[in-house]
Specification:
Layout: H1 4-7, H2 19-24, E1 47-49, H3 55-61, E2 66-71, E3 76-80, E4 91-98, E5 106-111, E6 116-122, H4 129-132, E7 136-147, H5 150-156, H6 160-181, E8 187-189, H7 194-200, E9 208-220, H8 243-253, E10 258-259, H9 271-280, H10 294-304, E11 312-313, E12 317-322, E13 331-334, E14 337-341, H11 345-351, H12 356-360, E15 363-369, H13 374-394, E16 398-402, H14 407-414, E17 419-427
Helix pairs in contact: 5-6, 6-9, 6-13, 10-13
Bound molecules: flavin mononucleotide.
The site of flavin mononucleotide has 19 residues, from α6 and β16.
């Protein structure tokens, strides 16, 4: 049993899907009531239009930008570099910029819809460091991911606690990908004074900071807390509170994650092709039951196993249900070890709430963990999910995140007592 369950309410247990729960509440919503997926600060804030020919602007823009606009009869949907459960996009990005030529030292909101930075706070002797790495100053960038949770809870109710964190992890993955393309080193921090920062950034109970990514030169210097509070601006036009989510966020923000040594991953992708991959990444909406090569399958698994640059860490293990990998007997695997042989594609489709993508994939991966901090573990699962997307797409294999599955039945099928956090389907 994950150790956190002894210390605080079991948020995973409380948000499980079962055959019955999905029958009772299939999450139908009236699409016309969807909360806005874009946050806008008022017009009077100063803005910097992001110019993609400027490497700093391009680095920031590529963390979140819109890459495809799907047109429907009466509406359109803007899809982005980062995937999102139900395309509801609860995550926002803020970036503190210090010591970068031509840019005012300040905290900016990344206004994704208009591809610009909105200056929401000018720095003097204060800054985000005091909440995140006290006693230090970063010359460079501090990215914050936050979740405007109602965008997701509007549809997914309590289970959206999971999706907010998975989405946040994916967004960290998008930041890491942009950093890689722009030759910037990056480090993630999950354990810091999130609640004080939420209050000082004026988020009230409507938006919560989930993670931080730093990129730049670290100096020994005392920086003080923000001298002024940032005014509250709502990320959705209307809002309905969800106490379960607010409680789950606050309690897991107070708990430390496991710790390990900071190690950076070493990737060797052709950067132009990798940039194209980030730009073209999409979730597969259907697979054709075609096989993939073992070489590509192992490439994907190996890149997922590369280090994650953070000292706050929760271990994730991967189980694979192999349906169609050339030269591999179909069955359930843990790494290279075959646990049980058989063609489980129908079973996998069923476990993932009868989703054809999980049935027709070449492989469906399941991420399990015995975490201490659920919030961190879910974000690391999402981060790994983003790696699976990008590495698969890089090698011409399609992919989709799968957040919806029957929890207990899946856990039983995998023969694990660890919590099943997330699934990914890959194939052609
Ligand atoms: C956490 C998470 C869970 C998801 N779960 C599912 C799922 O259960 N079924 C599915 O078809 N797609 C799922 N998706 C894919 C989203 O529907 C997709 O990301 C979104 O529609 C945006 O499209 P794009 O990824 O092509 O940009 C999931 C994505 C994420 C990030």
């Amino acid at each position: 049993m994950p150790q956190s369950k002894l210390l605080q309410p079991d948020y995973h247990q409380a948000t499980k899907h079962s055959y019955l729960s999905v029958q009772i509440d299939p999450n139908y919503v009236d699409a016309s009531t969807q909360p806005s997926a874009f946050k806008l600060y008022p017009k009077f804030y100063r803005r910097v239009k992001l110019n993609l020919n400027n490497p700093v602007h391009s680095f920031i823009s590529l963390t979140s930008t819109v890459t495809l606009e799907k047109m429907y009869k009466e509406s359109s949907q803007k899809l982005r570099v980062n995937p999102s459960a139900g395309a509801l996009y609860p995550t926002e990005v803020y970036v503190q910029i210090r010591g970068i030529q031509g840019i005012v030292n300040g905290i900016y909101h990344l206004e994704v819809e208009n591809n610009c930075l909105t200056l929401i706070y000018e720095l003097i002797d204060d800054g985000l460091e005091s909440y995140i790495i006290p006693g230090k100053s970063i010359n460079g960038f501090i990215f914050l991911i936050s979740c405007v949770y109602y965008r997701s809870s509007w549809k997914y109710k309590d289970r959206s606690l999971r999706y907010c964190w998975l989405d946040s992890g994916h967004h960290l993955g998008a930041i890491a990908a942009s950093a890689y393309i722009h030759d910037q080193e990056i480090q993630f921090i999950f354990d810091f004074d999130k609640l004080a920062l939420n209050a000082d950034l004026g988020f009230e109970n409507k938006e919560f900071i989930s993670a931080c990514a730093i990129s730049g030169e670290v100096q020994e210097k005392k920086i003080r807390h923000l001298r002024l509070k940032v005014p509250f601006v709502c990320g959705t036009a209307y809002f309905e509170a969800n106490e379960f989510i607010e409680d789950g966020y606050q309690k897991t923000s107070l708990l430390k994650s496991r710790q390990h040594k900071l190690v950076h991953p070493q990737f060797n992708f052709d950067k132009d092709k990798f940039f194209q991959t980030v730009w073209m990444r999409r979730s597969s909406r259907r697979f054709h039951k075609q096989s993939i090569s073992q070489e590509n399958y192992w490439r994907i698994l190996q890149s997922v196993e590369q280090p994650i640059p953070t000292v706050n860490f929760e271990e994730i293990q991967i189980y694979s249900i192999v349906h169609e990998v050339r030269g591999m007997p179909p069955g359930l695997y843990k790494g290279k070890h075959l646990i049980k042989a058989g063609n489980f594609s129908e079973k996998t489709g069923y476990l993932c709430i009868n989703q054809a993508i999980a049935r027709d994939s070449a492989v469906t991966l399941f991420f399990v963990s015995d975490y201490i901090n659920y919030q961190t573990a879910m974000q690391i699962a999402g981060f790994l999910g983003q790696r699976v997307y990008l590495v698969s797409n890089f090698w011409g294999i399609h992919c989709s995140g799968v957040g919806a599955f029957y929890d207990d039945e899946t856990q039983e099928f995998l023969e694990t007592n660890k919590d099943v956090l997330y699934a990914m389907a890959i194939g052609i």
